[in-house]
Amino acid sequence: MALIIACANQKGGVGKTTTTANLGATLSRMGKHILAVDMDPQANLTAHFGMERELESSVAGALRDRKAELPIYRIEDDSGATIDIVPASLELASVEFQLAAVIGRELRLREHLERVRDNYDFVFIDTPPSLGLLTVNALVAADCVLIPTEARFFSLQGLYMLQETISEAAALNPKIEILGVMLSKYDRRLREEKAVWQYLHEHWGDRVFTTEIGTNSKILEAASAGVPVNAYTGARKAVNAYQLLAREVLDRVETARL
Ligand SMILES: Nc1ncnc2c1ncn2[C@@H]1O[C@H](COP(=O)(O)OP(=O)(O)OP(=O)(O)O)[C@@H](O)[C@H]1O
Ligand SMILES: [Mg+2]
Prior knowledge:
This protein is of the alpha/beta class. It has one domain: P-loop containing nucleotide triphosphate hydrolases (Rossmann fold, 3-Layer(aba) Sandwich). It is built from ten helices and seven strands. A seven-stranded mixed sheet has the order 3-4-2-5-1-6-7, with helices on both faces. The protein is globular and about 50 Å long. Residues 12-18, 40, 42, 44, 129, 184-185, 213, 215-216, 219-220, 223 line the site of adenosine-5'-triphosphate.
């Protein structure tokens, strides 16, 4: 049965989608069965896997209608590794309002994932930069949360807000845990970033991932090309970094017996 990991941080542009896509793709090349769910109306994860084409259905329909099937599309890369994607679309933006008066609206994603989680080793959920219903659905469905962050002082305050929301989600999902905080766009040459690194390690201790993903233009280029870094030429350094991250995730999951 899959471990469900929500990738969350209400701050925008901190690397949630990039982490979900590249970690998912890396673990899939390691032979793991992966489902990646796009819960962001911006649909960046969907685009990250080159799925901008007109899709018949998105996660929005499944959230609106409990009986609808979760739409799952399979992507295969050059190496033959596959990853399953539940795409998003702009339609998702209206789901929050449509479900506003519905009992159990926070449980919709969990109900859908319960039906498919036996088919996977890991389910990753990419979330939008807000703490609204879509993120809450992800936190209620997840076993644990991976928090990508930039090494900026403005980001630190956001981490505490996210912790609060995770505690609130625990009312519906008491077993939820923080898998770790991960520096996803780290530039060690900048003094502010080094200071934040220090602060994070002092205050969050071993919840901070040892692996950091450095700023790397190939990561951005691969995203724009609609492929994960391991399918993009010249991104060896980034590929290695995500492999280290994937191994650390596997170790943490094992150590914490999640
Ligand atoms: N390590 C990195 N090096 C360089 N660019 C990066 C790196 N990680 C992410 N980026 C780029 O930073 C931008 C923001 O990343 P991403 O979209 O993953 O953040 P996000 O948290 O999902 O954003 P949003 O909150 O809008 O959903 C993207 O253009 C992405 O390609
Ligand atoms: Mg995103």
